[in-house]
C-alpha cells in the first residue's frame, strides 16, 4: 500500500461521496450510480480507483458487483472518516451534496424493502403452509437463544441465511456475521432486513454449503437454521462446516426431527425428511463435533429439534472415533 496512491484516490469529490455512502451500507455499483446521479461506467471507474488504493472492497454476486468500505487501507478508515466529517463541517457545498446523496440512499433502502415485501407476498402461501406444521417461529427462536447460552458468539456464519432473520436475531452477540445463501433472491431479501446494522458488522455472501468460500478455522459459531434438510449429503455439508469452525467453536442446527411427510420433497424441495437423534449424533461425530443433548419443540405436527455441538481438535475427534 503506497500512501500517495491513497491521497490521489481521495483527490476527487465523487470518490469522497462514494466513501461517504459506503460508510453507511454496502451498495451495488448500480445503486451507487443512482445515488450519485452518474452513469454506471463512470462510477465503476471511480470504484476501481478506490479499490486499487485499498479504500473499498468489491465482490461479485451473480451479475451484480457490490462495494463495501475498507480494504488494504482499513487501518486508515477511522482517520479518513474523521476527515470527511470535517470536510462537511467546513465546506457547505460538499455538505449539501452529501445530504442529497443520503436522501437518495434512503430511497434505495426503501426500494430494497419494497422488493423484499413483494418476494414475501409471492411466497407467502408456501411459507405459511410449513409454519402451520410446527412450533411458532418465536418459540423456536427463544429455544435456540437459550440453547446457545448467554455468552458471545464471536465470528458467526449463518449458512442458508434466507431472510437474514438469524443474523438479525444474534447480531448483538456476535463480533461479525457472515450471512451466506445460494439464492440471489434471498440475499436481496436479507440485505433489506439487515441494512440497519453497521456495514462493518454484517457481510452477505453468495455460496453453497457444499463448498464454503472461507478458510479453515474462520468462525467461532456456525448455524444451520432449517437448512440441512435441503442437503443431498448432510455429512458433506457438516464436514465443510467443521472445516471453517475453530477448535472449541460451536455448531447450531435447527431442523425437523425425522417425519413421514413425503409431500414436502416435491412441494418444498426437501431432500431429507428430518433427522433422528442417533443419525444426527453420527453425522456430527464423523464431522468432528461433540454433540450435546438436543432440544425438542413438539407442539406441532412436525417436531423441531435444536442440536448444539462443539468442534473438537483433530486428535480429540480421532480418539472419539476410535472409541466408538
Task: Summarize this structure as a short list of keywords or feature phrases.
single chain, 324 residues, alpha/beta, eight-stranded mixed sheet, three-stranded antiparallel sheet, 13 helices
Can you put this structure into words, describing what you see?
The chain is an alpha/beta fold. It has 13 helices and eleven strands. It has helices spanning 3-10, 13-22, 29-36, 40-52, 77-90, 92-131, 137-148, 165-169, 184-194, 234-243, 263-268, 277-287, 314-323; strands at residues 27-28, 56-61, 64-69, 154-159, 174-181, 202-206, 219-225, 245-256, 289-291, 295-297, 304-311. Strands 4, 5, 6, 7, 8, 9, 10 and 11 form an eight-stranded mixed β-sheet that branches. A three-stranded antiparallel β-sheet has the order 1-3-2. Helix 1 (3-10) packs antiparallel against helix 4, helix 3 (29-36) packs across helix 4 and helix 10 crosses helix 12. The chain starts with a helix and ends with a helix.
Protein topology:
Layout: H1 3-10, H2 13-22, E1 27-28, H3 29-36, H4 40-52, E2 56-61, E3 64-69, H5 77-90, H6 92-131, H7 137-148, E4 154-159, H8 165-169, E5 174-181, H9 184-194, E6 202-206, E7 219-225, H10 234-243, E8 245-256, H11 263-268, H12 277-287, E9 289-291, E10 295-297, E11 304-311, H13 314-323
Parallel strand pairs: 4-5, 4-7, 5-6, 7-8
Antiparallel strand pairs: 1-3, 2-3, 8-11, 9-11, 10-11
Helix pairs in contact: 1-4, 2-6, 3-4, 3-6, 5-6, 6-9, 10-12
Overall structural class, as computed from helix and strand content, comes to alpha/beta
- The total strand number stands at 11
Give the helix tally. Answer: 13
**Percentage of β-strand residues:** 15-25%
Amino acid at each position: 500500500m503506497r500512501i500517495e496512491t491513497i491521497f490521489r484516490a481521495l483527490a476527487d469529490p465523487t470518490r469522497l461521496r462514494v466513501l461517504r455512502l459506503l460508510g453507511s451500507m454496502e451498495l451495488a455499483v448500480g445503486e451507487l450510480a443512482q445515488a450519485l446521479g452518474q452513469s454506471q461506467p463512470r462510477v465503476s471507474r471511480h470504484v476501481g480507483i478506490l479499490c486499487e488504493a485499498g479504500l473499498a472492497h468489491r465482490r461479485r454476486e451473480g451479475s451484480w458487483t457490490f462495494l463495501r468500505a475498507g480494504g488494504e487501507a482499513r487501518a486508515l478508515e477511522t482517520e479518513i472518516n474523521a476527515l470527511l466529517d470535517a470536510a462537511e463541517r467546513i465546506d457547505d457545498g460538499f455538505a449539501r451534496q452529501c445530504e442529497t446523496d443520503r436522501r437518495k440512499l434512503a430511497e434505495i433502502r426503501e426500494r430494497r424493502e419494497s422488493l423484499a415485501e413483494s418476494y414475501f407476498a409471492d411466497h407467502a402461501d408456501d411459507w405459511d403452509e410449513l409454519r402451520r406444521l410446527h412450533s411458532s417461529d418465536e418459540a423456536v427462536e427463544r429455544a435456540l437463544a437459550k440453547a446457545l447460552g448467554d455468552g458471545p458468539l464471536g465470528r458467526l456464519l449463518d449458512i442458508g441465511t434466507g431472510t437474514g432473520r438469524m443474523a438479525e436475531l444474534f447480531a448483538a452477540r456476535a463480533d461479525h456475521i457472515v450471512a451466506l445463501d445460494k439464492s440471489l433472491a434471498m440475499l436481496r431479501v436479507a440485505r433489506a432486513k439487515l441494512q440497519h446494522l453497521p456495514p462493518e458488522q454484517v457481510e452477505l455472501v453468495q455460496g453453497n454449503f457444499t463448498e464454503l468460500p472461507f478458510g479453515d478455522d474462520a468462525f467461532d459459531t456456525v448455524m444451520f437454521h432449517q437448512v440441512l434438510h435441503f442437503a443431498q449429503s448432510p455429512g458433506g455439508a457438516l464436514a465443510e462446516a467443521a472445516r471453517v469452525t475453530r477448535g472449541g467453536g460451536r455448531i447450531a442446527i435447527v431442523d425437523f426431527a425425522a417425519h413421514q411427510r413425503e409431500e414436502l420433497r416435491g412441494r418444498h424441495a426437501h431432500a431429507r425428511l428430518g433427522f433422528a437423534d442417533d443419525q444426527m449424533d453420527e453425522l456430527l461425530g464423523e464431522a468432528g463435533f461433540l454433540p450435546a443433548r438436543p432440544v425438542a419443540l413438539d407442539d406441532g405436527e412436525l417436531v423441531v429439534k435444536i442440536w448444539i455441538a462443539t468442534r473438537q481438535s483433530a486428535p480429540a475427534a480421532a480418539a472419539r472415533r476410535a472409541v466408538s
